[in-house]
Amino acid sequence: MIHKNYKNITEFNQDQNLPEPENPLFMVGHLKLGADEIKKISPSKKSISYNSQFYVISLKKIVSGEIIYGRTKYDCSTGSMLFWAPNQTLITKDIAITSEVWHIAFHDDFIRGLDIRKKIKNYNFFNYYVNEALHLSPKEEETIKSIFKNIYNEYHNNQDEFSKDIIISQLETLLKYSDRFYKRQFINRQTINKELFTKFKEILNAYFESNRFEEEGIPSVEWIANELGVSYRYMSDTIKAETGKTAIDQINLFLIEEAKNLLLKENVPISETAYKLGFKYPQYFSRLFKKKTGLSPKEYIESVSAN
């Protein structure tokens, strides 16, 4: 595998056959190749991992090959958006060339002190381990492309005191539309969502059956996500799209269902149930149980026994 680590935007532009950036902290670039030019370029037969010290947003149309986000492979024959934050990794394999590419790259210093810096941390797609590309419909692609063009024109046309504000405003619009289209994609990928949620439950069941709750404690969402080969934010977003609840909610629901079974065993103290489910302190277990069921563990036992 070939490894590429871009320390600055100039290195990124050189590798992508783009001109040197006019601003060392921000650039927007556009490449468009004709059919004859594409045919002259052979696919790379090796996997390439990309890492950068800055944010990158790309809109691409892949002629052939595959893009791997995490452990998932995608056919990117339609327009696809790729997002990665500083120190995230993108892996490509056998990519021929794209007929058209848009890139935006910007350092954290470019947005430091601005509202967008706070907002960008709420866009989970920058923290998916680059695990889920955004695949656009033709109409969505035109919308995104028009925003790239607006930023490109402002960047290249005699920048003045208003230019950065206009660029930041357009960048915020780009991120908002991307978020909207991601939400649509989660809805449309229900089969994949169900598969991930099924594996999520299987991991919890196996963890419980092997007594790891009692021995190692309640597993974190980060640990489960690692077992699934995705980032914890992507896992939580997928599960929420599928069930309406976060991964943490689902872990708690699993604990409550197992607790109901354990509490009904004869001569088993409530504290033992708490420890078996990974709680260090029984009072924390009792608090969660009452919050989720409306009854304390003792009241639950009494209510079932009365029936």
From TrEMBL:
Annotated coiled-coil segments of the chain: none
Protein name: AraC family transcriptional regulator
Keyword Transcription regulation part of the UniProt annotation: yes
Keywords for this protein: DNA-binding, Transcription, Transcription regulation
Organism: Marinifilum caeruleilacunae
Keyword Plastid attached: no
Domain of life: Bacteria
Pfam families: HTH_18
Alphabetized InterPro entries for the sequence: Homeodomain-like_sf, HTH_AraC, Tscrpt_reg_AraC-type_HTH
Domain HTH araC/xylS-type: 202-303
